[in-house]
Amino acid sequence: MEGISAPAFQEEASAQVSFYEWQLAHGICVGIEVPAEIGPDCLDKLLSVLHPTERHAVETFPEWKKSSWIAGRLAAHEALRRLGFNDNYAVLNDSRGAPLPPSGYTLSISHKKRGPVTLAVALADRSSAISLGMDIEALWPMRMNIAHLVCTEREILASMGLSQSRRWRDVLLRFSMKEAVYKAVDPFVRRTLDFSELSLDLYEDGRADATWTVLNPLPNLFLDVRWMLWNDWVLASARTEKAPE
Ligand SMILES: CC(C)(COP(=O)(O)OP(=O)(O)OC[C@H]1O[C@@H](n2cnc3c(N)ncnc32)[C@H](O)[C@@H]1OP(=O)(O)O)[C@@H](O)C(=O)NCCC(=O)NCCS
Question: Do residue 46 and residue 94 come from a single domain?
Fold first, then answer.
């Protein structure tokens, strides 16, 4: 569901910043849209809302990385605030790139540039017993050449007979959900997964069944995967939870 309540930094944010909120099956998700090239005035305003350590980190980044990293932080802070977390906290990255949530929370970030805008989303929940993964992708243009990289034979067979645009949608959903799974499981497996290690059966209600094709790297963890379409964006999320002993 899309919400409209204003984020904490709205006064500082300029008219160039839009925000969205969805209550997803896996947690609260906040989206922040900023210009792909942030002008100096807007940049100063957005930097002023970040934690000093985050501001310091931004100074070390190349220009191309700034807008997405900042938007990701704004989305993360807002998602955490909506869960009741109001401390002044810096969302930094661990040695493998994962965002570090405050204790007692779980958090995942994704961002993409599309034309003149960058959309960043942050998915968060109030638990340290689970791990979340979030991914967004622009639905268009079709990039069918990624299909053989992303899909198992079983997944390709499942899409046979569908129209080209529907086949493309399914390829992208699978790509996005596998990226979300990677982010959710990386804290446990701490290695890159190959796309062929996971096979997904898609359902039109936004669910998907995930089957490990080789060795399940997480035998004692439940994995739940979801997807949704919004304004020609794919939003995919994954949640892992320890099975009871
Ligand atoms: C890390 C990876 C998932 C990032 O995806 P992307 O599409 O390039 O970029 P996104 O915007 O969606 O995600 C970037 C965010 O992911 C998060 N992230 C990066 N590495 C991460 C990791 N190891 N674990 C969890 N989250 C991670 C960060 O928050 C980052 O944003 P930030 O730097 O602003 O904090 C991707 O580059 C990758 O290496 N994938 C590995 C292969 C794979 O996905 N296999 C799936 C097979 S099942």
Answer: yes
